[in-house]
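Example protein as discussed:

>
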Amino acid sequence: MHINEKGQVTIPKDIRDRYGFLPFTEVEFTESNDQIIIVRNLTPRRRGLNILRALRRKGDIKCTTKEIMQYTRS
């Protein structure tokens, strides 16, 4: 793993999944014994919004809203 020219590092998918690092998740960096620790910021109000942002436009069914509403009312 390396730091790119913008100072960014990609967190591996298995680690993101295991610790709940969704897109738009806010993190904090702390130092301890010459190590850097990344901690997910658990602000409850923002977590729900982050989940919605992550799911937005992820559906793979090509239906209109009206069609979906008809399915749910059946």
